[in-house]
Amino acid sequence: MKVANTAWKNIRRSPYQALAAVLIMMLTFLVVSLFTMIVVSSSQIISYFESSPKVTAFFKEDAKQQNIDGVADSLKATGKVSSIKFVSKEEAFKRYSSWNKNNPILLDLVNSEVLPPSLEISTYKIEDLDTVAKVLKESPYVSDVVFLKDVVSTLISWTDAVRKIGLALVVVLAVVSIFIMTTIIGFKISQKKDEIEIMRLLSATNWYIRWPFLLEGMLYGVIGAVLGWLFTFGLTLYARPYLTSFMREIQLVTVSPAFLLALLAIEVGLAIILGAIASFMAVLRYLK
């Protein structure tokens, strides 16, 4: 308890230095939180495309229902199709109306007769999309084939790039945080040299002298991590309605309390480690 009180007094005596340490830690964990949410949401979007119909075939105006059924039977015969869903003109118009319900101009321009019927096809493996797309393109009744394999591949490459950039940025910020906190705590130690000498004359052990500084660094880390997490949480809640409207039927990752608390716990643990490392480097350097 006495160690904690000493650490708190050190923070109160130099509020600007404490603010600088907290801000750099907050920036570090703000980046950690943001990139975590981006990566998780990207993974959710990729999972949506992998579990949703991969290929959509739009039929010509003169295609009859038996023609469409024949195409569906030929796809089932490949043994690579997990599901086939027929979307009628009416169903397509309902979807179009739902997507553009806030835009009456677009609704007035389109009716159910304009939109073509289609088949939405899912495969067991993403590698089988080529075979399905080839069968569809060879059909004389199919006017267009929307192939989402390239979309999935692009999303995966983007997610990998974001993950690498985020990891590199977090590492750089973590190193910068450690050096800045080491400098701040080292400066505080140099200011308390007389007090430290008196404590040594009174037979205080090195660890008794070091612990308040170590705890101070950990407090900077914890406060910065919590602030960074809170900022990300608020930003996520603010942006979610806009993202949901933009992504339409794609369900973004649910911001569940369990997920957020787990993220906070991990960040606080990492913050304690970073703060302890920075403080330990400072006391080793300045407390000979």
Topology (elements, then pairings):
Elements: H1 2-13, H2 15-51, E1 55-59, H3 65-76, E2 81-87, H4 89-99, H5 104-109, E3 118-123, H6 129-138, E4 142-147, H7 149-191, H8 193-201, H9 206-247, H10 257-286
Antiparallel strand pairs: 1-3, 1-4, 2-3
Helix pairs in contact: 1-9, 2-7, 2-9, 7-10, 9-10
N-to-C order of helices and strands: HHEHEHHEHEHHHH
> What is the count of distinct domains?
2
In spatial order, strands of the major sheet run: 2-3-1-4
Low-confidence stretches: none
Overall SS class:
alpha+beta
What summary fits the major beta sheet? 4 strands, antiparallel
Please give the share of residues in helix.
Answer: over 70%
Shape, per Cα inertia axes: elongated
Mean of residue pLDDT?
Answer: 79
Rounded to the nearest angstrom, the radius of gyration is: 30 Å
Oligomer: single chain
- Measured between the Cα atoms of the first and last residue, the distance is 25 Å
Percentage of residues in strands: 5-15%
DSSP summary, beta strand count = 4
Q: How many helical elements? A: 10
